[in-house]
Amino acid sequence: MRLLIHTGGTIGMGPGPHGLLPAPGVVERAVAGQARVVAFDPLLDSADVDFRHWNRLLDQIGEESGPVIVTHGTDTMSWTGAALSQALAGWPHPVVLTGAMHPLGSGGDAEGNLALALSCAPGPGVWLAFAGRLLPAAGLVKSDSRRDDAFRAVAMPIPHGPFRRRRFADRRLSVVTVVPGQSPALLEAALAHLEGAVLRVFGTGTVPSSPAITAVLAAAVARGVRLRAVSVCENGGLVPGSYAAGQGLWAAGVENGGAETVEAAMAALWLEDAP
After folding, report:
1. 20, 163, 167, 199 - which has most CB atoms within 10 Å?
2. Is CATH 3.40.50.1860 what the domain over 169-273 is classified as, yes or no?
3. What pTM was estimated for this model as a whole?
């Protein structure tokens, strides 16, 4: 009987005094006789998921010799999908994420999503079973906050080769979006508190043509801050050298995230080989 790791999320929630809350036993009852369940304690709204929970999932998945299902909230499903996809590159068994926009027993999408996750038989990799479709989880985008068909997948390359044990490090990371008229002082202040950041830049890789911005980025890289650039555009990715306005990024030593989503780029900054 395959393992189901229940982290929390809407799929297993019930009403509380201030809105939906994780409710113990909901998912267990729904899959009785179909899967053995290991539940997080406490169960999580996915807004509270972080790198420590990804490491916990990796430890539990690593003890299995077959497919694993993970029930998870939708708000950070794309982050967990990107994280597990990179950390489990080369893992010989499928991991299927699922969740719902409505709780089990409410007449919504939860039962169908859970049934798809239990019945599908994909190849190795990390997948999302949702709204009647099986999507690769490496480049998920939550495109709607209310509709049942809430996700789409951006094509994302996954490293090949033999599996190696990796985990997510405790690092001060964030996302910094470059805006028109970007203040170098504001950028400098943000980077001063970080060990790494994903920079969301324009188009194929441009930023305002400001020597001060280039100097801020170069100084951050010089003191060991990892900066990884991705495009604000959902598709197409970065093409260094296509515009002179992007030269400052690469001259400063910013990493090229290519076609990565923000979530995938952030996972790359968090991830390291396990000791």
Report:
1. 199
2. no
3. 0.95
